[in-house]
Write a structure and sequence with these properties.
Low-confidence stretches: 185-194
Mean pLDDT: 79
Number of strands: 9
Number of helices: 2
Largest sheet: 6 strands, antiparallel
Length: 209
């Protein structure tokens, strides 16, 4: 006949459950720490590889002699004029960002911005039109001082149509807001809309005026 004290047995069971929870929590913490270290190591390795590739390119092609300052309007010479706004933030901690706004009909760049890490730009002057964004990350600029010497990649987002006058005759303005990282964690989101669609484009397409 079992003579164990029910209170003692219940207390012992509670202790063992507590110990197992602590062990599981410790395993999760160790696993998370290891994954973080691995991701960090991979990121450093990719950055080192990029810097080597960029240095090799610098030996073959002259880089920009006078790099632009933050928020410099790269091209064309004068920005468009309108009432719509574009807000862009470079959420990356290592790479510079170039964003080009292209006319959907002509494919020509109507605006281009250079944004260093952890900084933002705000342009409140976009006119009506259909536009799409291309953006790329990199380090040094090429001799034109308008494009990267060796971009790590370039992405193009889907078209956005900006219209000041609505169908019912009311005035309307659009605000587009994007946060970009080289890890593609943000992708690109409109200020009050849904997930953006994107696809890769070549560096040659990105360099087009």
């Amino acid at each position: 006949m079992d003579q164990r004290d029910p209170v003692t047995s219940e207390g012992s069971s509670y202790v063992w459950r507590f110990i197992w929870k602590c062990v599981l929590l410790l395993i999760v913490c160790i696993g998370g720490f290891w994954m973080t270290k691995q991701v960090d190591a991979d990121r450093k390795a990719k950055r080192a590889e990029f810097l080597q590739r960029e240095e090799a390119a610098s030996q073959r092609f002259p880089p920009c002699a006078n790099p632009p300052e933050f928020e410099t309007f790269l091209e064309p010479e004068a920005p468009p004029v309108g009432i719509h706004s574009l807000h862009i933030r470079n959420d990356d901690s290592f790479y510079n960002l170039i964003v080009k706004v292209r006319d959907y009909t002509t494919d020509r760049a109507v605006a281009s911005f250079f944004i260093p890490p952890h900084l933002s730009i705000a342009d409140e002057t976009f006119p009506d039109g259909s536009y799409y964004l291309q953006y790329g990350f990199g380090g040094k600029l090429d001799i034109s001082c308008k494009n990267f010497l060796t971009p790590i990649w370039v992405i193009q987002l889907s078209m956005k149509e900006l219209r000041e006058n609505t169908q019912d005759g009311h005035k309307n303005w659009e605000r587009l807001e994007y946060n970009f990282t080289s890890a593609l964690s943000s992708g690109g989101r409109r200020y009050r809309s849904s997930q953006q669609y994107y696809h890769w484009v070549s560096a040659e397409d990105f360099r087009k005026p």
